[in-house]
């Protein structure tokens, strides 16, 4: 895609993410749904659908163009087009897959990396400990590879603590009750929409000591993990509908973090410190840092050489 196409899709995807969490009166009081029409929310939603479909159609048409330069390897769009007749796939099916791949979870990983780097810069002790581990494991290879991650035990604790304190999806994907149940004396009827506040659970003082502090060491010798078996920490949900991208997303975050702390030394820019850095959150289905993270860096080649 060219620069204009990239910027257009970025604008469309940001609007899509905003609509995911936009307020619709009809979601809570169905008979007052006309208020949504007055505020323009349905028209905004339809416009976004049309723009997304137009973008997906453009991608598919480009892949079907016989004059398109062929790369050495097929991508997933090529595969779906090839299997379209055999599997009775329609354009809507391919559009749906494209939406899942391009929109679902694309910003949760980047948000997690930003929050993790923010916490590391605010906590130099943790930063130094993570850097020492990564540089001792990687040595002079010049980059961290996936095969190195199994040895980066402390870095994994840093990522786990980031998931706890800054859950990438603070409200998990909504659930719907299938039968009547009673919780704390409240009757929950079938087909009730249920939101699970994973961020509040991760900061609950009943389960976490000093819940607002960034302390990766809290997970040393702890059985608590984020794979859905311990409900104190459920950034990816739990049960049969746990996030299918959990392993890939976590590995991506760990690999990104490892390379960042391996290659550079990080510090606050002039005028910014731990006390005045903006830690406010932006609204969205994935919680990003409201203001950009500004940092000063310098390469750490000399530090890496000392590890040889």
Question: If you had to describe this structure to a student in words, what would you say it looks like?
Answer:
InterPro entries: Cyt_P450, Cyt_P450_CS, Cyt_P450_E_grp-I, Cyt_P450_sf, Cytochrome_P450_71. This protein has a two-stranded antiparallel ribbon with strand order 1-4. It has a two-stranded antiparallel ribbon with strand order 2-3. Strands 5-6 form a two-stranded antiparallel ribbon. β2 (181-183) and β3 form a beta hairpin. α1 packs antiparallel against α3, α3 packs across α5 (91-103) and α7 (124-138) crosses α10. It has 11 helices and 6 strands. It has a domain at 1-89. It has helices spanning 3-20, 34-39, 41-64, 76-82, 91-103, 106-122, 124-138, 153-165, 198-202, 246-263, 301-307; strands at residues 175-176, 181-183, 186-188, 193-194, 264-267, 296-299.
Strand content: 5-15%
Specify the oligomeric state: single chain
How much helical structure, as a percent, in the residues?
A: 40-55%
User: What low-confidence regions span 5 or more consecutive residues with pLDDT below 50?
Assistant: 302-308
Series of H and E elements: HHHHHHHHEEEEHHEEH
Number of helices: 11
Rg calculated over all Cα atoms: 23 Å
- Trace the largest sheet across and list its strands: 1-4
The count of DSSP E runs of length 2 or more, i.e. the number of strands, is: 6
Q: Report the average pLDDT across residues.
A: 87
Spatial shape: globular
The helix-and-strand class reads: mainly alpha
Largest sheet: 2 strands, antiparallel
| Straight-line distance between termini | 42 Å
């Amino acid at each position: 895609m060219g620069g204009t196409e990239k910027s257009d899709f970025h604008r469309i995807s940001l609007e899509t993410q905003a609509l995911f969490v936009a307020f619709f009166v009809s979601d809570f009081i169905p008979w007052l749904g006309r208020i949504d029409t007055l505020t323009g929310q349905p028209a905004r939603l339809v416009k976004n659908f049309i723009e997304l479909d137009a973008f997906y159609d453009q991608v598919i048409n480009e892949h079907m163009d016989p004059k398109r330069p062929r790369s050495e390897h097929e991508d997933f769009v090529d595969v779906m087009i090839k299997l379209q007749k055999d599997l009775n796939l329609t354009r809507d099916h391919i559009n749906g897959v494209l939406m899942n791949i391009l929109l679902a979870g694309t910003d949760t990983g980047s948000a997690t990396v930003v929050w993790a780097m923010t916490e590391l810069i605010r906590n130099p002790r943790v930063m130094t400990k993570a850097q020492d581990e990564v540089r001792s494991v990687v040595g002079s290879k010049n980059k961290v590879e996936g095969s190195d991650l199994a040895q980066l035990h402390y870095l994994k604790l840093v990522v786990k603590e980031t998931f706890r304190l800054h859950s990438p999806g603070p409200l998990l994907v909504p659930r719907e009750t299938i039968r009547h149940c009673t919780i704390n004396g409240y009757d929950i009827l079938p087909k009730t929409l249920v939101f699970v506040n994973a961020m509040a659970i991760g900061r609950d003082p009943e389960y976490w000591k000093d819940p607002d502090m960034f302390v990766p060491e809290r997970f040393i010798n702890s059985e608590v993990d984020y794979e859905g078996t311990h409900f104190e920490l459920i950034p990816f949900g739990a049960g049969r509908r746990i996030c299918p991208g959990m392993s890939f997303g976590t590995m991506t975050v760990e690999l990104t973090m490892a390379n960042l702390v391996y290659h550079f030394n990080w510090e606050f820019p002039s005028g910014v410190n731990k006390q005045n850095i903006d830690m406010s959150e932006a609204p969205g289905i994935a919680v990003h840092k409201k203001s950009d993270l500004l940092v000063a860096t310098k390469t750490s080649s000399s530090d890496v050489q000392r590890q040889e």
